[in-house]
Structure formats: C-alpha cells, structure tokens
Amino acid sequence: MRLYRRTPESPDPLERMFELAPSGLLVLDGEGRIVRANRAAARIFDLGDPAGLLGRPVEPLFSDSFGQRLKEAFSNDEPGSEPGPLVVVARDVGGQEFPVEVTSGALSDGPSPLWGLAIRDLREHEALVQALTERAARLARSNQDLQQFANIASHDLQEPLRMINSYTQLILRRYPDRLDDSGREFLGFMVEGASRMQQLIDDLLTFARIESRGRSFGPVELEAVLAEAVRNLTVPIQETGARITHDPLTQIDGDDRQLVELFQNLLENAIKFRSTTPPRIHVSEALDGSVLVLSIRDDGLGVAPEYHERIFQIFQRLHLPEEYPGTGIGLAVCKRVVERHGGRIWVESQGVPGEGSTFFVSLPRHHVIPPPSAPAEPASEGERRAIEIAQDLIERRLRQLA
What we know:
Layout: H1 13-20, E1 24-28, E2 34-37, H2 39-44, H3 64-75, E3 86-91, E4 97-108, E5 114-121, H4 125-174, H5 181-212, E6 218-221, H6 222-232, H7 234-240, E7 243-246, E8 251-254, H8 256-272, E9 280-288, E10 291-298, H9 330-340, E11 344-348, E12 358-364, H10 381-401
Parallel strand pairs: 7-9
Antiparallel strand pairs: 1-2, 1-5, 3-4, 4-5, 6-8, 9-10, 10-12, 11-12
C-alpha cells in the first residue's frame, strides 16, 4: 500500500481530508458567509464547483426557521451552541427542498471567528429505504405464505389423513378373516404411514407458528418451566428410569410456553437417545454479564462432531425411524425458539456412547421495554418540514413498490 508522504510542494493533509470528506463541509465567517466549501457541499446544493458557494450567506441555503436561528446565533457569536445533529430542510440553488442533517461548531474565536457546518444529505438514504422496504415486503409475503400453509395443513391435509387412518383400522377390525397375513401387514403399514404423516404435519405446524403464535415476553421462573417440562414427560421418565437433576435456576424475560417446549424437547432427546443404562440428565446455568447460559448434560449416545450443525436443521435425522421414532424437527424448533428470544443454541459432544452430550442455550436475561416517553416538545417549523419531506420519500417508494 502506498503511503501519503508530504513534500514542500504537496498539499496539507488536512486540506486533502477536507476535500475528500463524504459530508458537505462549510466554513463560515463571523457574518455567516461561506469562505470555504468542499466538493461534497457543492454536490449537495447542486453546484458543480465549490467556488459557486463562496461569498454566499448561509441562511438562504436552509429553511426560513433554521436560517433565522443561524442568523441569530451568528449575531450572538455562538452558532456552535446549536444542538446537533439536527434534521432540517435545505434548499439547493434551484430552490428544491430536501432533508439534511446538520452539525455546527466553532472553529476559532477572536476578532475573526470561524464556524463550521457539517451537512449530511438524507436523500442518500432513499436507496437504503427502498432496499429495506423491499426486504420487509418479501418477508411479509413469506410469512403470509407460511401462515397460509399452516392453515391448510391444520385442516385440508389433516382431514384426509384421519379418514385413511380410520377406515384402514376399520377394515382391520371388521374383516380380519378376509385378510391373509400379507394383507394385514400392508394395512398396518398404511396405518403407520398415515400416523407418521399426521405427526409430521403437527410438528410442522408447531414450527411454523413459533412467531405467529408466540406470546409477549414477561418474567419467567426457569425452575417452574423445567418442572412443567418434566411433568409433561412423566411417562417416558418412568419407562426408562431417567433421573433429571438441576442446579438452582434464575428468572429471565421470555415466552413461558415456548421455554417449556424448549426444555421438553431437549430433555426428551436426552431420554430417547440414551445408552444402555437409565439416562442421567443434569440442568445448570451460568451468568455471562447480561446473558444466561443454560446447559443440559446427559450420558447418552452423544453426537459426532461432524453432525453438530446438521442436527439443528429441519427434518435432519441421524437414525432410522424404526430405531428412534420422531420427525426430526424437535431441535429445529428449539433453535427457532431460542432465536426468537435473541439467543443461541449449540452442542458439545464427541459422539462416544456413555459420555453423552451437553446442549448449551445462551439467552439474554432481560429484554428492554422502552419506558413511556415524556411528552415531546413541539417541533419547529423546519423540523416538521424535514419530517414531512422524509415521509413523502418513503410513501412514494411504497407506492412504487405497490
């Protein structure tokens, strides 16, 4: 990389920075006239050459209200007292109004004071507004499609499956003597397939509705959440002789119902993928600043390192359904619940049976809810006009997208 080296003939580096600055920079004398301007300022005010701004009074370049405030500040020798940055209305040489952000400050004092204005053209944000608007529209369409799918799955897909399941079982009960062993086996496969498809749809609905059916966040006692998850797993715990222990758990902000589902899925996985001995599962927590890190450790089969990312993807299974029933969506649901809470989930394991796995969940302890804002001071005429222009830019872009 070539370094800039100053020679007696080369310009002052500060002068070079002044010209290269992306914001418009104006230097004003004690009477509010422009004595220096950079290229960015010339572009902002629709001039090809900064020289076109020299000698001009600065007030006409802004809305009447802000220009008057500048004029009064110059007459009182304190333009740097202007709070900044301010969003105000500027005018180019053709009289076109547009929003800008202005920061002012004293550059020197004494008998020949100088003041500076740094100006950022907010019209440059229109492209960003457009990109964000388009992305929001795409996300809205995607969420709408997902919700429509959820509604279809909950009604139109479930009903034919229930009918297939019911009539197949009815045939098995009413006509056992008319079926040979192969016929009964085939019908059994149909019942099993329909039941699995129904379970798959139920799990998909759960996955699809994590956002749309989520509750508002509030204080949640994690010990109560864990206790409810354990109660929901009473049958598999009794059947396998599982032992679940935990350290004292704290309170966080979250959706209590989804946090129960998170614990339940992780505990159920630990029970399901156990080794040859009754599963032992321990839940603990650690604080890392404002983040709570939960760990769920088991002594089961473990997860080989090459599968640590894959297991959190939807429908990813490491075992055949005949070995371990399920749809392979539980950990994907856990990941989505954790992400909705602003956290992260991962696993540490070497995949050695008996050594098990430890699933970690990091969650913010608190989700900041802004307090009721104090009554705002009435906006100045210039500020109101700047807001109106900015809103007009956004509305025009939305109409174009529509």
